TrEMBL record:
It comes from Brachypodium distachyon. Keywords: Nucleus, Repeat, RNA-binding. Its main location: nucleus. Residues 125-200, 222-298 form the RRM domain. InterPro entries: CID8-like_RRM1, CID8-like_RRM2, Nucleotide-bd_a/b_plait_sf, RBD_domain_sf, RRM_dom. This is RRM domain-containing protein. It comes from the Eukaryota. It is found in: Nucleus. One of its GO terms (cellular component) is nucleus. One of its GO terms (molecular function) is mRNA binding.
Amino acid sequence: MAAVAEGSRAASQAASAAAAAAAKESAYQKDVQKLVDLLSNLNPAAREFVPSSAAPPSKKALSADAPVFDYCSIGGANGGSRDSGVDSTYIGNQQHKMRSGYINHGRRRMNERARRADREDSIRRTVYVSELDHTVTEERLADIFANCGQVVDCRICGDPHSVLRFAFIEFSDEEGARAALNLGGTMLGFYPVRVLPSKTAILPVNPKFLPRTEDEKEMVIRTIYCTNIDKKVTQLDVKSFFQELCGEVSRLRLLGDNVHSTRIAFVEFVNAEGAIMALNCSGMILGTLPVRVSPSKTPVKPRINRVPSN
């Protein structure tokens, strides 16, 4: 009886061990299947990742298809072969561009030095005139200072509503500018002027507005430049003003903007005598303000009729 019970216990333990082994095998198979499913989602062409610290040193070898650089092929040595993979024409073009860039840069530097030298020379030949009566015109001022030397340019500046203004006068040489300094204290209008060496050059007139042909030069002789014009005055008012006092006006251009409180005009007469007479109109009242008249440096060019675009 005891032997039967012992045998039954052993069979039970064997059955339990077999069941546990079967369960363990089933779990193992499930884990393997999960791993297979996971690996199936990866890129089959992917390489194994190796940290840089564990990677073997690279020999940095070139590709077998990489071109061979031959210094001789670009003129580095005499008798070089042109069978290299480097495009010698391209390199030659790059070298030409570099040489051209250096040459152009050198030319720009030379041009800048030349312009700087011309500007400094112009400053030495220029005087600054201050406390200038507003009734004095550029023509009259140039005539007075012409006794010191040849006047190249004369430019009056300042607020048109101010009683006093200032001017820059450029001479053909430095001797004229030095002689002009002696005119300080001269009475021009109601005030004595001050004359000092200038610290700046006179800004030149835009060349595209200067007369280019003989006809345009002749037009300039018949043209005056009028400033400090009342904004309420019309172009017809300006034309009537000068025609009644000086003669027939052939062309007129009245200009202004929203920034300045007054306007300017270029008036061309039929005859040069009319332009000369108009210079005497400086200080006369047109509208509510006294106008200033001086010879024009530019002609009154006709307007270009633009064809409207579709």
